[in-house]
Amino acid sequence: MSDPVEIVRLGHSGHGATADGLFVPYALPGELVHIERNGERARLLEIVRPSSSRVEARCQHFTRCGGCAMQHLAPTAYLDWKRNLVIDALSQRGFEGVHVADIRGVAPGTRRRAMMKAKKSKTTEIGFYEPESHTLVDIFSCPVLLPELERLIAPLRVALQDLLRGGETAELHMTATDSGVDLSLSWRRARDANVLMDLGQLARDLDLARFTWNNEPISISRPPVLCVGRFTVSLPPAPFLQPTREGERILQDLVLEGVGGAKRIADLFCGCGTFALALAEGRDIRAADDSPAMIEALASATRTSGAKFRAEQRDLDRRPFMTSELAGFDAVVLDPPRPGARPQAVQIAASSVPRVVYVSCNAASFARDARILVNGSYRLESVTPVDQFLWSPHIEMVGLFSR
Hints:
Layout: E1 5-6, E2 9-10, E3 16-17, E4 23-24, E5 32-38, E6 41-49, H1 75-92, E7 99-100, E8 104-105, E9 113-120, E10 124-129, E11 136-138, H2 147-150, H3 153-163, E12 169-177, E13 180-186, H4 193-205, E14 210-213, E15 216-220, E16 225-228, E17 231-234, H5 245-259, E18 264-268, H6 276-279, E19 284-289, H7 292-302, E20 308-313, H8 323-326, E21 331-334, H9 342-349, E22 355-360, H10 363-375, E23 379-387, E24 396-402
Parallel strand pairs: 7-23, 8-23, 13-14, 18-19, 18-21, 19-20, 21-22
Antiparallel strand pairs: 1-5, 2-3, 3-4, 5-6, 9-10, 9-12, 10-11, 12-13, 14-15, 16-17, 22-24, 23-24
Helix pairs in contact: 1-10, 9-10
């Protein structure tokens, strides 16, 4: 065995790094470890001197399952590392001295949506892939998921054992909505009466609010809904929601605080209205997203509400709100996908909108767009990190900009 090496820092992906830039998954700063080298990556073989921040993982599948990367790091050190991901991303874009607030985190067992894989060989396996692999890890518990989702794993494994043929695979999108679990199954199988009957029975056995197979509703016992204030949104299949209810409330509070007294607000990349509906009382809201299903759900929820609300389907990457369209808005709220909102940020930077609240799940694209806004004479007042993606390298944040 080669001489042990020392881990000097954590990289952005959560891997430990040596002084010469070699990345070692599951190693921590200050540790002395034996490794097996493979290019710029290495496999951890033995910990000679453990870090004082090392803790026992919560999950029996940790290091095999690719869902979590950081269960071995103590909570305080873990949250400090995540907050520093935001600080480092801002620094790389030339931001120094920006107020980065204390990170706001959620508890284990709160994630309300998950995408799992299923495969039948001799038995049926359900779970997540190994890190950087398409090898499926058959899981029996998950400390990240809400209990109502975790409880579905075992009965789904039994049901799919009878449904799947040898070698077949399927994909399961599970969402815990405010009216029950919405399960969407993607499975390449010819549509026939026997399959439909079996799937319908599965939905009844599991008491699903809705069960969808290849975008076809099989069973709807209760319409899956999202409740925001007095509004109720009937959700399309496999909807995009914030990962946790607790994190959603934290983000909504930060957005409400960020817009202040603004009365006319544009909510761009609005999804199903997580922020638009939270802002709707007493304000004039214009919401836009590229998903027709999401926009229709949002429009239906507000159609007879009496709120000043307009929802439109629009690809904001190809057709962002132009500077002239932004005139008259008191605030803009942005919540783009991971690539960010560069075309839209360019237009906002040239506008006269007084306040911008930017919700992001990617520190790098947020910092890039923040530089565009600041170069357009906005000031980045503060950034608040929010950890909804527990034990992963992903971090959410809310940035507040003002003219």
